[in-house]
Design brief:
Length: about 290
């Protein structure tokens, strides 16, 4: 792969998918990592809805010491949900980020019941489904297991990501996380239709010190939640200091992740986002989350 735009130099992609996966992926881990290296990027976060990616990241890191490869754990049914033992082990084995449930949330399930999409998260291998969704609440109160997970994240100074929680639940989680001492909170794909946030909600989360994912997948043909011009407008209103640019790409029918990130950056430049803001959102802010 030819080297991409110089703007990708030093960048970290915080939200990407690759194989092995039960879902069709465009690239395997090795192919994705080689693109990251060839683009002159600083690093990449591997996300796996199936459960863990920290083990893959650790193995790949040995092969590619010149770039940073991060992984973590997603608290879906496949790892026992909000499993404090799984989270504790993940952090002890080098996980950099703990995601709240994604596929296992009621928000996710309801979205895809309303919006059939044959290309997104469709597997040829039928999984045992559960009608029961994972909630972070026991009645009106945040579960003790969630509080323990937040304590573990705070103790290790790692990243809490909100997964596919709806905006109301995510905000309550943020308040609890801050009370417990979590310093690095990432609100996922705030413009994506699966779990959207209003601009007012986004502004409230920025005020709470959270970082917001501005996600290219929201502008894709798969979702069409907004166009890049509209997204640029939200960035101008929120400010770049608490936004990060991600793709959430890796689906087999879409372009490779690094190409998508390069295209995203160029399109944002064309609609008036400054080069300094781009650097803030793909280099400085991600570096703070993953390295500080």
């Amino acid at each position: 792969m030819q080297k991409n735009s110089n703007l990708l130099e030093g960048a970290i992609e915080l939200h990407a998918h690759s194989a092995p996966s039960i879902f069709p992926r465009r690239q395997n881990d090795w192919e994705l990592i080689e693109d990251v290296r060839d683009a002159g990027m600083y690093g990449i976060v591997l996300k796996a809805h199936e459960g863990v990616s920290y083990d893959r990241a650790n193995l790949l890191q040995n092969k590619y010491p010149e770039i940073k490869i991060y992984g973590g754990l997603v608290c879906n049914h496949f790892v026992g949900g909000l499993n404090i033992h799984a989270v504790d082990l993940a952090l002890k084995m080098g996980a950099s980020i703990i995601w709240m449930p994604t596929l296992s949330t009621s928000t996710h399930k309801k979205y895809f019941e309303r919006n059939k999409n044959e290309k997104i998260l469709k597997s040829n291998n039928k999984m045992i489904d559960s009608d029961e969704s994972i909630s972070i609440f026991n009645g009106k109160h945040i579960k003790d297991s969630v509080k323990t997970i937040l304590e573990l994240i705070a103790k290790n100074n790692k990243v809490l990501a909100t997964g596919h929680l709806n905006s109301d639940d995510a905000y309550k989680l943020v308040l609890e996380a801050k009370k417990i001492g979590v310093e690095k909170i990432l609100i996922q794909h705030v413009d994506l239709g699966i779990s959207p946030y209003t601009l007012t909600e986004q502004q409230q989360l920025v005020e709470e010190g959270c970082f917001l994912e501005k996600c290219y997948l929201a502008c894709s043909n798969d979702f069409k939640d907004m166009d890049v011009t509209m997204m640029a407008d939200t960035i101008h209103k929120l400010g770049s200091s608490k936004c990060v640019l991600v793709t959430d790409y890796g689906q087999k029918h879409n372009v490779p992740v690094v190409k998508a990130l390069d295209t995203f950056v160029k399109e944002l430049l064309e609609v008036g986002v400054s080069q300094s803001d781009i650097k803030k959102m793909i280099v400085e802010n991600p570096r703070y989350l993953m390295e500080s």
